[in-house]
Amino acid sequence: xxAAAPLRILIVDDEPLAIERLQILCARIDxxxxxxxxxxxxxxxxxxxxxQPDLLLLDIAMPGMNGIDVARALETRPARPAVIFVTAxxxxxxxxxxxxxxxxxxxxxxxxxxxxxxxxxxxxxLTAPSDPTTPPDPWVxxxxxxxxxxxxxxxxxxxxxIEAERDYMRLHVGKSSYLVHQTISTLxxxxxxxxxxxxxxxxxxxxDFIAAFRYDENGAWLAQLQDGRLVRIGRSYLTEARRxxxx
Length: 247
Fold this sequence. Notes:
It is a single chain. This protein is α/β, with parallel strands linked by helices. The chain has helices at residues 16-27, 41-51, 67-74, 93-98, 111-127, 184-190, 238-245; strands at 7-12, 32-38, 55-58, 82-87, 103-106, 142-147, 150-155, 161-165, 168-173, 176-180, 196-200, 203-206, 210-215, 221-225, 230-232. The chain has 2 domains: 7-127, Response regulator (Rossmann fold, 3-Layer(aba) Sandwich); 156-245, CATH 2.40.50.1020. The longest helix is centred in the middle third of the chain and has 17 residues, at 111-127. The chain is elongated, with a radius of gyration of 21 Å. The N and C termini lie far apart (51 Å).
């Protein structure tokens, strides 16, 4: 696909009315070419082979092979099309970034929201590495987080602090915060250790958001963050904190 070529789109949804709505929305966006539609996952994979689309607008909750299954099957293809999930459920957002979805749209899809998602696909196609042998990035670089009536994209590099709250993790991004349903150990394994450090059993911080390390009056180590907050460092994580501090 080149920058000047139309973006070849395949719509996959088990609801005919949902397909019709996406067809109407796509018709209003310049540079799109609808090459086909499918109403279930297995048919979608056959059409991907036959039609070679650049992008799938892919429902998730479908009978038989669901949208997540389709996206995982596409990961084995040498020329994998981009995927934008279009769903009525926010509960799949965490799984979506595991299969490298470009975006995650909630039904009913707003026209401007689809415009932004399509723009992201075009940008990704222009910045993709030209060498197909380049190994995939092992670390998560973005999160899709349910927030109010939409799914918000958060770059990992923008997260200042992560704190555990029972079965959820709170991602602090500037003055805003978002909850994701995931354990802190699972989240830690997905984050670049060169960018993040575990400070406590319930806390992860971005390394460059730490302003200083110091003792409190009881001799415990604390991390002072750029916004002035103090985070106690657990004993199990003190060695790495000291290494970062050059001690």
